[in-house]
Every structure is written in C-alpha cells, then in structure tokens.
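protein under study:
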Amino acid sequence: MENLKTYALKYSIPILSLIAVFISIYLLYVHYSPMSLACPDVGIINCSNVLTSSYSSFFGIPLPIFGLLYFILLIVLSFIKKTDIIILILSTISLFIVAALLYIEFGLIHSVCLYCSSIHLIAISIFFISLYKYLFRANKTL
C-alpha cells in the first residue's frame, strides 16, 4: 500500500500537469484558428466570452501560453530531485493567479469558461499535493 501511495504522490503532479498542457494546447489552437470552441453557451457558462475578452491576453500574449509554459515547467521539475520547495512556491503563486482569474471571470466578464475552470482546479490540486509532499513527505525521497 505504501508503494502505491508513493507512486501516486510522485506522478500526480506530472499527470495533472500533462492534462493541463493538453487543455492549454487546445485553447491555443482555438485562439489561433477560425474553428469554434467546443463549449456550451448557456447562462453564465460561456467560454467564448472569456476567451475573447480583453482579459484573455497579457501584454498581447494569450493566457494559455503562460499556462502551457507553467505546466511544462512543473512536469520537468517533478522529475528532478529536491525540487519540492520550488514546486510549492510556484503552485502558491499560481493560487493567487487563479484567484485573480476567477475574479475576472465572475466579477468582470460575468462568464465562466469550463476549460479554464478545469485548469484552475488542476492548479489548486497541484498546490495541495505539493504542500502535502513538502510538509509530510520531506524526509522520504519521492
């Protein structure tokens, strides 16, 4: 049972990050292509409103690029020993970014993107996993 828990902790961050990479690639593809987004347009759920708003880029760079780079970095760091503190710091910073993005979605745009929300949930999950690994598993090598 301990081996299963160890493997789950070791591979959960890269697996979640890989899922977020695929979502980010899809969002980038949709951003740069004429194809429409596969997302419901019902009530508050409206991916197009979020992804075409003035908040969807930072200094002219689409936000999915930042997410893509962040999650690729996490994948690389998760396979390097003794990087738990770096992953924890990065995931803590990402919590503040997620909070800001949620404020923008709910407070300013009044629409929610399901793809963005899934990436937000992944970022929050990675924070808690990295916090657990840092606090409770620091003595063991993962």
